[in-house]
Amino acid sequence: MIGVRSLEVDLTKSQTPNPKSAGHWTLFIFILLLAAALRLYRLDSVPPGLTHDEAGHGHDGIAILRGARPIYETVGYGREPLYDYVIAGLMAMGGPTGRVLRFSPVPFGLLTLLATFAWVRLAFDGPTALAAVALQAASFWSLATSRQALRSGMLPALLASAVYVYWRSVHKPREIIQKKLGFWLEMGAFALLIGAMLYTYIPARVLWVVFPAFLIYLAILHRATFRRVWLPTLIAVLAGLLLSAPLFAYLRAHPGAEQRLEMLDVPLQALLSGDISVVLNRAWGCIAGFFVPGRGDDFLAYTIPGRPFFDPLTGALFLAGVGLCLARWRDPARAFSLMWFLAGISPSLITGSAASSTRSIAALPVAFLFPALAVVTGARWAMARWGGRIAWAVGLGFVGLVLATGVASARDYFVVWGESPDVRAAYQHTLVEAAGYLDAQPESGVVALSTVYPHAPHDPYVFEISLQRRDLSLRWFDARRALLIPPSFPPSGGDEKGGGARLIAPASASLDTYFADLPSLRVRERVEMRSDDLDPFFIVYDWEPQVAWAALRERAQGARADFGGALRLLGYNLRAPTVAPGGTIELVTLWQVTNPQLLRPQNLSNANEELVLFTHALDAAGNIVGQEDRLDAPAWDWQTGDTIAQIHRFTLPPDLSLGPLALKVGVYRRSDLVRLPVLVDGEGVGDAVLLRYVEVVSE
């Protein structure tokens, strides 16, 4: 059988030099250099910024540099920490910058190619290995994941390396297995790689099962091989699992840490109830995402929505390669490849095609083996039947396929995807440009930033990684509904390098008219992005916060109250004392922070721990007929003496009876819904404050 090795035979035969080996490695290095060039090209501008998930990795990498030693990260719905330690190491050499963060996935993408080539060459042959890595290197999937600063991109590199080391270790005669220290060192490296995978990305929790499953396969079909390798394999796998024990001990002690597992709840609950349709539909969605245009991963931030992993020709070759492996399933390498691919896509078989480019990423190294097998097998068959010219034609056709795939991937990635206004918005391009603007300005002092996502693990983390300077005092809120005013400091009209105040508001989070006409704001500059951007500009204001606060107080009525000894209600402004049924109540409340430590979330990365201000409209019977619960100047950013103006707008039911409504306000934490007590002389007198009554009148 041409090109097929039996592992049983390889385990016992002596190895002889292959005169073609040097040529294979030369071609591979050429492919690797081209892949590196493609992955480094315009790395500073495509993607055009950072996603919140990428910025979270950067933030945690900086925290590790400063002494943090997490066993599990809580940013981004919970995640394994190994990639953050890698980023910290890179930042220790290159500095805590966005450029270092953006570069961090590139070495793992190249390592995936190297480990894939080494394993396929060992398990199959050199031509198949070259074909597999050429297709992988040219694919959009590999290109995109090699430029995403996400922990998922580390997993295929570790897995492919583990497979290679394992295959190399068991690819030895029995006497070497029993006597040589090198064998046990290789198995030790295999165990370390399994442990490392478990500290990298959640799909690794099913990937290690491939190796025990392969032992079962060997026990059934290749017993001599099984007797030689079963004990070292189990020892190494168990050692790798033991290395992950601290991680799982932490998760056991913190059962709410893994919020991502909730994504599995719907299909698993349906399965437990006897309804397999949900799982079958999602499994079909996963499989269709490999081949069917429009059915691929729809997660815009990391791929072109709906784009399948394979073009039609590569998809047909993939199916042919899978068919060859199924037909020759008694060959261990082919059987292992099928097991690997199935384990790699198993998360997406449950969750569907959504985000499958990352959830199925463990299948990336082996996915392109199957079309490579089909091409190499076809070329050899053609050579045996018709001679070398036809085989050369098949080879040239494959080279053309690789080139066409690479050109299409580059076009789709750098032009179609990379220049998309939606992608620029997803990568917070306007916010990143605002950071660059501030880096270029001479002034220090306070900079207040209005953004759509002012909570700690979102826009502030993107800005932290993007901003080079560290002499600015940054404050965060969403000016569409709130304004945070810092305590008194020198006004902005002093020395040009002095401590003035500026406020930056992008088009997506522009100032509400209630704030925009305050006398303290003067437009300094409007910085334009691209005209087709979803967020096409940001405005820089010179700002005098205390003048703004004085103007807000003049508009407000007094209504003092102490909430929990940490936050004071200082007043409110009801925009209209009457409202019609179905009309809108608009209320502005003014607050002052007295003890931010009591209010700040213990875990800044969990927005669920944030405070919420509520406004309730109650009828004569005490029923809530209208309300709004929100806080657009989040408490994680509060400092003693800060004052906050919060706008509350909500619509009343159209069939509401005429008469007075009581307006009450209060404060609670979203995670437990417990309200802060209203204190008088240190004693609790309730959990809400009645501001006034508003009359519901006919139009």
Word description of this protein:
The protein is 49% helix and 15% strand. The chain has 699 residues and is of the alpha+beta class. The chain folds into 3 domains: 7-12 and 46-422, no CATH class; 428-551; 556-696, Immunoglobulin-like, CATH 2.60.40.2550. The strands form 3 sheets. Strands 3-13-10-8-7-15-16 form a 7-stranded antiparallel β-sheet, with helices on one face. Strands 2-1-4-6-5 form a 5-stranded mixed β-sheet. The chain has a 5-stranded mixed β-sheet with strand order 9-17-14-11-12, with no helix packed on it. Helix 3 crosses helix 26 and helix 6 packs parallel to helix 9 (155-170). The longest helix is centred in the middle third of the chain and has 30 residues, at 388-417. The relative contact order is 0.08.
Write a brief caption for the model:
This protein is 49% helix and 15% strand.
Note the gap between the termini: 88 Å
Beta percentage is 15-25%
Beta strand count: 17
Level of helix content? 40-55%
Structural class: alpha+beta
Integer average pLDDT: 91
Domain count, please report it: 3
Strand order of the largest sheet: 3-13-10-8-7-15-16
**Parts with pLDDT < 50 across at least 5 consecutive residues:** 1-17, 490-499
**Which word captures the global form?**
elongated
State the major sheet. Answer: 7 strands, antiparallel
Q: What count of helical segments does DSSP give?
A: 29
Radius of gyration, in Å, reads 30 Å
